[in-house]
Design the sequence.
């Protein structure tokens, strides 16, 4: 069925280290994947996206990797900072013939950055 | 600034008293949707709208109504709120080529 899951509910890293947050998805028809960051009391904030015809995309300090063979998505954050502490969600969209663009979220991983 | 605006941010109400949570976007997006966020259940879609006067149920539509009379606004209506609708609600809008933009959320408590 449709579901997007994350491997770990909580990830704790030292400030300055790199963080890797993983996500497994089940819908092989998904076209588009997005990582969101949600800070306490705020709505999900777009971080980076990737389309199904790509396997890697880089942003500022963030990289998303997509492995369609094993249906796996990861978010890499370089030189993690205290301001990166938040809950991170992966999400997928399968546009299909209906083009509804429904966003399906995973459960979220809480990133804790230790000073 | 491109944004999705929800109001109110916080609301405490009593069972059965009709309420409306407003949502407005200034990006001229056709697609808008409502989500609720609950601990352990993540974000679940309540209703969505693909354009003016076009709305459809999401995964958890029971107890909710929506309307889309104009492109920028997509209010969420609870005709008779119940305690199980206590939750954190998010409105979002999107374009086919870009991800969703979310509002800041409405924390609703029904007593």
Sequence:
């Amino acid at each position: 069925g449709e579901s997007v899951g994350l491997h770990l509910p909580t990830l704790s890293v030292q400030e300055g280290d790199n963080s890797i947050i993983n996500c497994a998805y089940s819908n092989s028809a998904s076209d588009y994947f997005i990582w969101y960051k949600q800070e306490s009391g705020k709505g999900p904030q777009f971080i980076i996206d990737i389309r199904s015809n790509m396997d890697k995309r880089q942003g500022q300090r963030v990289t998303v990797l997509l492995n369609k063979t094993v249906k796996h998505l990861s978010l890499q954050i370089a030189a993690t900072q205290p301001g990166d502490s938040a809950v991170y969600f992966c999400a997928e969209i399968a546009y299909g013939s209906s083009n509804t663009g429904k966003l399906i979220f995973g459960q979220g991983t809480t990133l804790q950055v230790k000073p | 600034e491109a944004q999705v605006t929800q109001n109110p941010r916080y609301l405490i109400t009593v069972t059965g008293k009709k309420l409306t949570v407003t949502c407005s976007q200034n990006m001229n997006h056709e697609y808008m949707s409502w989500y609720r966020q609950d601990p352990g259940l993540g974000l679940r879609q309540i209703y969505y709208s693909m354009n003016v006067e076009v709305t459809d149920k999401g995964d958890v539509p029971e107890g909710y109504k929506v309307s889309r009379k104009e492109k920028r606004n997509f209010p969420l209506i609870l005709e008779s709120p119940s305690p199980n609708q206590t939750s954190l609600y998010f409105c979002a809008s999107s374009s086919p080529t870009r991800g969703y933009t979310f509002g800041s959320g409405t924390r609703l408590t029904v007593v």
In short: Chain A touches chain B through 21 residues (CB under 8 Å). The longest strand of chain A covers residues 86-93. The CA atoms of residues 72 and 103 of chain A lie 17 Å apart.
